[in-house]
């Protein structure tokens, strides 16, 4: 054909790379463009996208560092003699994490090479529906043409532009994971899961951390929305679970400034940051100084510099995200989009990867399988993790009516917490089922250690249409936390005490 | 063979016709449960819900070393619970090492104190024993710490620690006496060796330990002892984890070897002698090869026997009431409603022939049995696709067929095995083994590629496996597995 490539992927992140590599398997000529615009603080990184560089991977590793801090405390109860004091050095952790991330960048480059996918480190923008041009860092212009184009440019953290000093003095998750030195006393601001997870591990490694929340934690994403109401991930509007998670964090040592919103950030002579905020409850202004202020007020799609108008690709006027149909196609037939940039989809790596792969299979592999966005499981890696799949209790009530659903729940205590004398007050699970006939399971929610590991298998069950009786027929593995799911029998409706007693 | 008997048969008439002592029409109890372990207590508590008059007899015959414990059975006292806690202690030792790479700093020398751990574990067990006693009292279940032995139809003798005997009668009985560790039958075994019955409350650190056996008990104990810093050797007669998927078993063994556990393969001990007294002392073990005449000797502080468990069924008077047992194994054959050949006698738990020796299975069986007896339920215990986990240093979770059994049953050409190594994200930064964790699923090609076997080797294998077991119960196929999105980044998404 007249176009140079069969497929051009703009964005070398989870979705983009998965799509590109899959297409290459079919012997197609594929190119990937990836470019990281440095953050306002000047942070940049290699190929792999958000997940690898400034998302899931470094987040989970730092979460692990924090968990290991708790393990050190537990270990003493289990007989290990560790001299006090024990302290944490940020730079050792950061270096370990950053080295691993860099090995992943390298791994992706090698894979692309092996699969004969052409990689350009350029920032692309459309000049017409089949043509993308871009500048390398050195300023050299490259033009790429392709039959099919996939946009997978993801998102970047937002800044609260109405807060004076926010841009100059605050950092975001883009910067946090690449800091060479400890952020010290930190104020991650506002509440979205990114914020809770970061606040959680910062507290866990011993830093004085405060979270400022405008309204309620893990609020329904309808306002700062990047997930539409139709395809909400299971933990939105999940008030009960959100409270348990934040309650745990409070007992864990994270400070919360609730119903407060910042008004300005100023830099002091000492180098510290003075933050002023409005306390909505008391209707007063308060102030305090911190080493670091981190914004986690939501993420915005990276579409501005793409020049989508030149291609005719339509976006949602409110969110800026690209509108796609069930086959990931945009308003222009040969242009597709996957991942965080798409409107109405969960912002998760595994869905981006799956969507990217399936798209490549449909384009080049004679497949007609569409991506199924229902019942996508996910986990929030707060100090006490929260994993879920399916509908939240609120969504189930909204969809079916509270008379038609039954919620089974239990408070349990992980065996490992006993000897360690750890508080299990917030260890909790609930299963939302339809009341009628076979009692199909609509949603499962679990707070506790290794929540992701627990939920994954049950997500499969839900994909198979699991029912409450089938769950009860499944024998538990003893002793684990997950077995409690197979023993759920107290309903919320009964009002009975849901604390698990001995085996 | 065991047929389902109708309880309409009048045992009294039959007895009298045979010239035997008639049985009283009014019994002391509706139900007597012999054995206060996982199965027995679950059954007793369930029966109490239906306002039945229930008694539990529980008694622990002291070990050859003189060790005993409270109410709750094997799981609570000398099984799952202390095992998992000590396994956790060992995992925490590893976590300490990992934590340095994640930035935590503390002294190089980290030592483990056996007594601190054991005391904490025993305290927790004590709280469970107490909890069970309170639960039984609250539910108005009569409990006696006495050894139960049948003396005649519907009649049992209960002998307490002081030797005082009492007779009780009941309409029905559930035998749930469980098992105890087997000894080798060689000179010095009972005098000098310990078993899992002694290990979890050992009042001194076991030191350099020889574990005899290749059961999951042997490997789990060897695993955590090594993890706590002890010098551990495992003496194996033939294969590891008989009955489990052998590929997985070998991987477990390899991992343990690479992490400091010594293995002596194809040898059996023939004699144990005491070299020095002490807590622990020094023992000399002489062993013979199973493949030749070679004899070896070794010295250890502790010898732990984990060669198998035998049911407690031979000395409870079963012959007096005609309950059949398998003479060779001691296990009790039952029908699919847990009923023995004697209509009013049932059995649950580890003593059952051809059933799994797992706490949750015993609990499930006990509860469902009682619901069928007293609540008009018809649900039978589902023994198919019961998941399990072996808590070795590298944990192994499984549900369904092993690869060997699947090949045997369906034929190699009819099954497809999908497999993958994986590297837990948490192991990357501390540079831990990058090719040891492994997962495989076995699918039946002829049945829509239904998943008939699930195996995973990696951290938190139990947590990972549980959900998959539920999915397998729902008839999971490969296609459904493929279309389920993974949670990232966790091990289970592999």
Portion in helices of chain B: 25-40%
Full CATH superfamily name of the largest domain in chain B: FAD/NAD(P)-binding domain
Helicity range of chain A: 25-40%
The average pLDDT of chain A is: 88
- Rg result of chain A: 24 Å
At the first level of CATH, the class of the largest domain in chain B is Alpha Beta
In percent terms, what proportion of residues of chain B is strand?
A: 25-35%
The number of distinct β-strands of chain A equals: 23
Low-pLDDT runs of 5+ residues of chain A are: 220-233
How many distinct beta strands of chain B?
24
Which word captures the global form of chain A? globular
Kindly identify the CATH topology of the largest domain in chain A: FAD/NAD(P)-binding domain
Rg of chain B, Cα atoms, Å? 24 Å
Structural domain tally of chain A:
3
Specify the biggest β-sheet of chain B.
7 strands, mixed
CATH superfamily of the largest domain in chain A: FAD/NAD(P)-binding domain
Global structural class of chain A: alpha/beta
Give a short account of the largest sheet of chain A. Answer: 7 strands, mixed
The rough form of chain B would be described as globular
Domain FAD/NAD(P)-binding (chain A): 5-356
InterPro entries (chain A): FAD/NAD-bd_sf, FAD/NAD-binding_dom, FAD/NAD-linked_Rdtase_dimer_sf, GSHR/TRXR-like, Pyr_nuc-diS_OxRdtase, Pyr_nucl-diS_OxRdtase_dimer, Pyr_OxRdtase_I_AS, Thioredoxin/glutathione_Rdtase
Domain Pyridine nucleotide-disulphide oxidoreductase dimerisation (chain A): 376-487
EC number (chain A): 1.8.1.9
Please outline what is shown here.
Chain A is α/β, with parallel strands linked by helices.
């Amino acid at each position: 054909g007249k176009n140079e490539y069969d497929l051009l992927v703009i964005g070398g992140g989870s979705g983009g790379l998965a799509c590109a590599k899959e297409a290459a398997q079919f012997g197609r000529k594929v190119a990937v463009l990836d470019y990281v615009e440095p953050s306002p603080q000047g942070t940049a990184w290699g190929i792999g996208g958000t997940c690898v560089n400034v998302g899931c991977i470094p987040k989970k590793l730092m979460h692990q560092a924090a968990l290991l801090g708790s393990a050190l405390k537990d270990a003493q109860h289990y007989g290990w003699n560790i001299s006090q004091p024990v302290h944490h050095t940020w730079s050792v952790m950061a270096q370990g994490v950053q080295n691993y991330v860099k090995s992943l960048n390298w791994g992706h480059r090698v894979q692309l090479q092996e699969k004969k996918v052409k990689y350009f480190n350029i920032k692309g923008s459309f000049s017409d529906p089949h043509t993308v041009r871009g500048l390398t860092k050195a300023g050299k212009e490259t033009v790429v043409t392709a039959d099919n184009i996939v946009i997978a440019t993801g998102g970047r953290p937002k800044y609260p532009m109405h807060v004076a000093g926010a841009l100059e003095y605050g950092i975001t998750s883009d910067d946090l994971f690449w800091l060479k030195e400890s952020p010290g006393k930190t104020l991650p601001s506002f509440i979205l899961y990114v914020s809770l997870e970061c606040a959680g591990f910062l507290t866990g490694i011993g830093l004085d951390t405060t979270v400022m929340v405008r309204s309620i934690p893990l609020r329904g994403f309808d306002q700062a929305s990047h997930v539409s109401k139709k395809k909400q991930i299971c933990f939105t509007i999940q008030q009960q679970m959100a409270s348990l998670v934040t309650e745990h964090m409070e007992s864990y040592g994270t400070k919360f400034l609730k119903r407060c919103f910042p008004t300005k950030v100023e830099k002091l002579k000492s180098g510290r940051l003075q933050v002023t905020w409005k306390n909505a409850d008391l209707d007063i202004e308060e102030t305090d100084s911190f080493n670091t202020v981190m914004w986690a007020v939501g993420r915005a799609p990276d579409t501005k510099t793409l020049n989508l108008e030149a291609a005719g690709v339509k976006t949602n006027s409110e969110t800026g995200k690209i509108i796609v149909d069930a086959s990931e196609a945009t308003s222009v037939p040969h242009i597709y989009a996957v991942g965080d940039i798409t409107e109405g989809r969960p912002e998760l790596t595994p869905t981006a990867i799956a969507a990217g792969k399936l798209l490549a299979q449909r384009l080049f592999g004679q497949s007609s399988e569409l991506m199924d966005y229902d019942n996508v499981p996910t986990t929030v890696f707060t100090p006490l993790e929260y994993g879920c799949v399916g509908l939240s209790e609120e969504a189930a009530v909204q969809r079916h009516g509270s008379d038609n659903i039954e919620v089974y729940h239990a408070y349990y205590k992980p065996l490992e917490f006993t000897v360690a004398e750890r508080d299990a007050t917030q260890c909790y699970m609930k299963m939302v089922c339809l009341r009628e006939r076979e009692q199909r399971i609509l949603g499962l929610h679990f707070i506790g250690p290794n929540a992701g590991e627990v939920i994954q298998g049950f997500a499969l069950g839900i994909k198979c249409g699991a029912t409450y009786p089938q769950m009860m027929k499944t024998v538990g593995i003893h002793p684990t936390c997950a077995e409690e799911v197979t023993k759920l029998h107290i309903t919320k409706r009964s009002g009975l005490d849901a604390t698990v007693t001995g085996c | 063979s065991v047929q389902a008997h109708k309880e309409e048969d009048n045992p009294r008439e039959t007895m009298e016709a045979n010239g035997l002592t008639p049985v009283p029409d009014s019994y002391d109890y509706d139900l007597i449960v012999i054995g206060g372990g996982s199965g027995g207590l679950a059954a007793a508590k369930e029966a109490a819900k239906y306002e039945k008059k229930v008694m539990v007899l529980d008694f622990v015959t002291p070990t050859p070393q003189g060790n005993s414990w409270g109410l709750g059975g094997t799981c609570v006292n000398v099984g799952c619970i202390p095992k998992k806690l000590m396994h956790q202690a060992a995992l925490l030792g590893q976590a300490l090492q990992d934590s340095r790479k994640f930035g935590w700093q503390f002294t190089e020398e980290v030592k483990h104190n056996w007594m601190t751990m054991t005391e904490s574990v025993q305290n927790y067990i004590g709280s469970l024993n107490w909890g069970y006693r309170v639960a039984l009292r609250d539910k108005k279940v009569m409990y006696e710490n006495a050894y139960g032995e049948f003396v005649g139809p519907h009649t049992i003798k209960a002998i307490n620690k002081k030797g005082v005997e009492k007779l009780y009668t009941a309409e029905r009985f559930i035998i749930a006496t469980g098992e105890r560790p087997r000894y080798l039958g060689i000179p010095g075994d009972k005098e000098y060796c310990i078993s899992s019955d002694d290990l979890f409350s050992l009042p001194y650190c076991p030191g350099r330990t020889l574990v005899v056996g290749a059961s999951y008990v042997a490997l789990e104990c060897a695993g955590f002892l090594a993890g706590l810093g002890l010098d551990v050797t495992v003496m194996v007669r033939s294969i590891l984890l008989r009955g489990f998927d052998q590929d997985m078993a070998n991987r477990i063994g390899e991992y343990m070897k690479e992490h400091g556990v010594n293995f002596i393969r194809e040898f059996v001990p023939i004699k144990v002698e005491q070299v020095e007294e002490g807590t622990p002392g020094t023992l000399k073990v002489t062993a013979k090869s199973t493949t030749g005449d070679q004899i070896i000797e070794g010295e250890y502080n502790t010898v732990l026997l984990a060669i198998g468990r035998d049911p407690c069924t031979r000395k409870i008077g079963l012959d007096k009431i005609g309950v059949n047992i398998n003479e060779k194994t001691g296990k009790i054959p039952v029908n699919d409603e847990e009923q023995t050949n004697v209509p009013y006698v049932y059995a649950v738990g580890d003593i059952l022939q051809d059933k799994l020796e797992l706490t949750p299975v015993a609990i499930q069986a006990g509860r469902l049995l009682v619901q069928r007896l007293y609540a008009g339920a018809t649900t039978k215990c589902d023994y198919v696709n019961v998941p399990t986990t072996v808590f070795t240093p590298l944990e192994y979770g499984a549900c369904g067929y092993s690869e060997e059994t699947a090949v045997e049953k369906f034929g190699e050409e009819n099954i497809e095995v999908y497999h993958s190594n994986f590297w837990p994200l948490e192991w990357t930064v501390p540079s831990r083994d990058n090719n040891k964790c492994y997962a495989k699923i076995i699918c039946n090609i002829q049945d829509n590629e239904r998943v008939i076997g699930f195996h995973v080797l990696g951290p938190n294998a139990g947590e990972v496996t549980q959900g998959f077991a539920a999915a397998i119960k729902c008839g999971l196929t490969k296609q459904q597995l493929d279309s389920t999105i993974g949670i990232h980044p966790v091990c289970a998404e592999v």
